[in-house]
Amino acid sequence: MDPLKHASIPLLAFLALSKNPGLISITILVFGAIFPDFDIFFGEHRGYFHSLLFLIPLFAASLYVRNIYLWMFAFGVAVHLVLDFFSGVIPFLYPLRKKGFGLKVSGIIIFERLPKIDIKYEILVGYPTKSRGSYVGFSNESLAIALVALIVLLIRLNLLAK
To answer: Considering the entire predicted model, what is its pTM?
Structure first.
């Protein structure tokens, strides 16, 4: 999944659920949501930063020190891992076990006399990939989601009302 989706999806969730979204919280959340992909700079993508052995201590630290910003960062990382689980493979116990898992789900609703739902799934198995340089790509769909997130953000921060 690309950085625009990773940033936009948790941002939209936060904007929908937060009473008073602040710019600092939003920035930290978005940074947390893209942070796991920084592992490309360390030679292996979907490695340690995509592991529960990174996420669980991060959440524990945020609760122990009672720091909302650290919690927002951890929440962003958690959403990233969930999104990657459905778009690839996550090595949950990296570096103890490099083997990772993911879930590919697709479905269709057929509208006949009685609607029929056909859902297919596939359990994915894989390993972290070697980084081949650093680049960022995105799709039209990602750009559209990011623009919707930006509009909602501007509305929630009352920047469009002025």
So the answer is: 0.88
